[in-house]
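Q: Hi! First time doing this. I have a protein sequence and I read that you can turn it into a structure. Is that right? Here it is:
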Amino acid sequence: MKNNQKVCVIGLGYVGFPLAVLCSAKGYKVIGFDTNKKKIKRIDRGENIVSEKFLEEFLPKAKIRTTANPKDLREGDIFVIAVPTPVDEKYYPDLSYIISASETVARNIKKGALVIVESTINPGVCDEIVRPIFEKAGHKIGEDIFISHCPERINPGDPKWNVINIPRVVGSFDETGLQKTLGFYRSVVDAEIMPMKSIFEAEATKIMENSFRDINIAFVNELAKSFDLMGIDVVNVIRGAATKPFAFMAHWPSCGVGGHCIPVDPYYLIEKAKELDFDHKFLRVARAINNSMPLYTVELLQDALNRIERAFKNTAIGILGISYKAGVGDLRESPALKIIELLKEREAVPHIFDPYAPEKSNVENIEDLLEKCEAVVVATDHREFLKIPPEKFKENNIKVIIDGKNCLDKEKIKELGIIYKGIGR
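A: Yes, that's right. Below is the predicted 3D structure, encoded as structure tokens:
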């Protein structure tokens, strides 16, 4: 595949940047396109802009030619579109980034080039949105150029699974495009690349994966609320159920679902199905349950403060963690942001610390936070927070702990006379 071919990666974020680094390390000439010039400067300085440890091995070998000039893309042989696909305030899919990226590539692509959409999209986007853009620009799909879809699979902060070794699926509009795409990914990814029978199936695969997780998380979140009323520790129940060696997969409740995929992708399928007069009731309910968890967490805090006769107004509340998952500084769709917003609406005073997002912290360290607060909400299970001795909370006169990730030692904290509430425990 390589033969001095140039790979143009459109969008240098959590998906595009690692792929660009990998392609360069594997021998391709790489052009990285992004409209964020500050990001481009950081990449040019050799920074690991997504803070993924596995990239440290490849960054010294990577030579990425970055650009914000669309004309530089005219040299490309393979184009990978890896731009965001968010939802708006009303949870309606926003395809503006896909449209803009497709238009940019369509104006600057040469004959015989391959276009791969990695962005997560609902079934039909490649056919109804992407394809017409290229056809309007005068390209014949399957003759002049080829269009495929290989949905991204990435798990920020995962020490085992990354862009190098996660299996992928590929779909295309035609057999030639499919074989070209399979050849490309097999030349850079050290894992199985599975061909799908159509581009629609490839689009549907990623939506299914993330909807599956969203539904299962919603199930245990609902159980957490129910079991809490019954005085049952849902975490212990899940551990018990997980001893069954088949037909059960443990999912865990928390203060909310974050990241760019799980809280977003189901809406793409929900809205697409509406066009066909189908109502994805299950997905809508799951989304509603998971969206309710930040408020539920704040309500747990309110009940606990009532027990010590404290109101929200002017009460200092410590927020441990603002990123959506442990070990990363990724704030996309983080439930911590919603928790902070709800606390401010109630006139509480949030003191925020996240070692992976210092620019969003308003205290310098854990000690500073504990000294200033009466209550603490654990919103991210960073390892730094798991190491806090329960006695340290007591020493700093912390009266209430809301464990939004069920990651602290419940029994030890309660033995110290601190009010502890987890999610379902």
